[in-house]
Structure formats: structure tokens, C-alpha cells
Automatic annotation (TrEMBL):
Residue ranges of coiled coil: none
UniProt-listed InterPro entries: SurE (IPR030048), SurE-like_Pase/nucleotidase (IPR002828), SurE-like_sf (IPR036523)
Gene of this entry: surE
The name this protein goes by in its record: 5'-nucleotidase SurE
Chain positions recorded as a divalent metal cation binding sites: D8, D9, S43, N95
Length: 259
């Protein structure tokens, strides 16, 4: 198997090293793992592409490249320039922090997987939830490292993989617990943290200029029961099927009243 990996935390991120280990095992002895990742952190860029400016690509080692671009840029560069053949699978992550609930909408990790799906490739985003039970571990990616390979193998074997225009890609979040405390895997819809959105906080620089810092919110508040973050906080790996189609299909029938 030929696997492309990317992330949004940057090419030197520890989560990418975890994903390299997982991908190497998944690809097998005769397989290939190609790494094309941002040279610098690109968290929160979503599905951004560098449409108005060029990106520099630097080869770091055999099958290992850094780009001055977003995760979606990395996928485009890999598929259309760097790799001699298209990958069989694209993996994005392992992100430092969860991409469950509304976080998924901002995530560069998911942006890389989404772009792969738009290119007609099977794709999975992987993220490691942080919390009181794992943030002080020597290996904060312990549950992802311990369960990532098996989860991907089961998903590749039993998941739904489509070839339609907006093909399915997957969002996996590993729970904020040690590896041996993971209770299992749950297929789950994307949740929503009410009253927990992003905001801004003003700050003044030493030169007197006014800036705004984007602020997040506590990640330990559960979402609706049975959704991704809810299962994660209960100790389960969540697997969420996603599409890039933004149509609110449930509203189309009612909207016919305007025709």
C-alpha cells in the first residue's frame, strides 16, 4: 500500500511521528509511506489553500517533504507534483488536541483529509483528545499510538468508501485517557458544544499597538449524548463519516416554497 501522510501541526510535530509509525505498519513490508507536511504549524486553517501565492517545497529526506502551505496544499502538492503515483490512502494527523464537535470545522487536519477526498482518494483524519487523565503522561499520544493501527485496519475493512463526487472521509478522535483505559470504538455523528465557541481577547503590545488573540474554550464539556466528543470523554474512540458537501439536505423540501 502507498500511503501519504500530512498534518497541521508541522513536519516536526510529535503526532506526525506517531502517524509515521502507524502508516509504516499499515503499508506493510512492500509498501511506501510518503510524508508531505507543512514546514510550520498550520492549526486552525481549515480547508485553506494557497490560491493567491506560490508555495515552496523542500525535500527533507527520501519520501519526506515540507511545504510552506496548508495541509490541503500539501495534499495537492503530493498528488499533482511530488509523488510519481497517486496514493492508495491519505492519513492526516495525529493532531495535538481533539477535532471533535465544532472543532472539526476549523481543523487543518480535517482540511487535508477533505482535500484528499475531493481528489478521489480514501482519507482519514486522526486526532488525540487531551484532558486531565493524559496531558501529564510521558507519551500524550499514548491512546492514538496504542489503538491507531487497529482502528484504521478495521475502518479500511468495514468502512463505507464511496467514489461519488463528494466522497466520504473519516474523522477519528482518540479519547483523553491512557491507552489501557480506552473502552472501545463508537461510530458517532459530529457534536456541538453549546455556548463554547471561539472568541477574541484584546491585547496591547509594548509599542502600544492593539491586537486580538483568538480564544478557545474548555474542551471537557460534553456534547449531546452519542456524539463524537461525548464518546471521547467517556473513554471511547469516535469514528465519524464526513462529506465536503455543505448542502442542508433536510431543508431542501421546505425551500421549494420559494420556487
Amino acid at each position: 500500500m502507498r500511503i501519504l501522510i500530512t498534518n497541521d501541526d508541522g513536519i516536526n510535530a510529535p503526532g506526525l511521528a506517531v502517524l509515521e509509525e502507524i502508516a509504516t505498519e499499515l503499508a506493510g513490508p512492500g509498501g511506501e509511506v510518503w510524508t508531505v507536511a507543512p514546514a510550520f504549524e498550520q492549526s486552525g486553517v481549515g480547508h485553506c489553500i494557497s490560491y493567491t501565492q506560490p508555495m515552496m517545497v523542500s525535500q527533507m529526506a527520501e519520501r519526506r517533504f515540507a511545504t510552506q502551505g496548508s495541509p490541503a496544499d500539501c495534499v495537492l502538492a503530493a498528488v499533482h507534483d511530488i509523488m510519481p503515483e497517486r496514493p492508495d490512502l491519505v492519513l492526516s494527523g495525529v493532531n495535538r488536541g481533539n477535532n471533535a464537535a465544532e472543532n472539526a470545522l476549523y481543523s487543518g487536519t480535517l482540511g487535508g483529509a477533505m482535500e484528499a477526498a475531493l481528489q478521489g482518494l480514501p482519507a482519514v483524519a486522526l486526532s488525540q483528545y487531551y484532558g486531565p487523565e493524559n496531558r501529564d503522561l510521558d507519551d500524550q499520544f499514548e491512546s492514538a499510538r496504542g489503538h491507531g493501527l487497529d482502528t484504521l485496519r478495521r475502518l479500511l475493512d468495514k468502512g463505507v468508501w464511496t467514489k461519488d463526487d463528494y466522497g466520504i472521509f473519516y474523522n477519528i478522535n482518540f479519547p483523553p485517557v491512557p491507552s489501557d483505559a480506552v473502552k472501545g470504538t463508537r461510530a458517532a455523528p459530529q457534536g456541538f458544544r453549546r455556548d463554547m465557541g471561539f472568541g477574541v481577547q484584546p491585547a496591547q503590545s509594548p509599542s502600544g499597538r492593539r491586537f486580538l488573540w483568538v480564544t478557545g474554550a474548555p474542551q471537557q464539556q460534553p456534547t449531546s449524548e452519542g456524539t463524537d466528543a461525548d464518546w471521547n470523554l467517556k473513554g471511547y474512540i469516535s469514528v465519524t463519516p464526513m462529506r465536503a458537501d455543505l448542502t442542508a439536505h433536510d431543508a431542501l423540501e421546505a425551500l421549494k416554497a420559494i420556487e
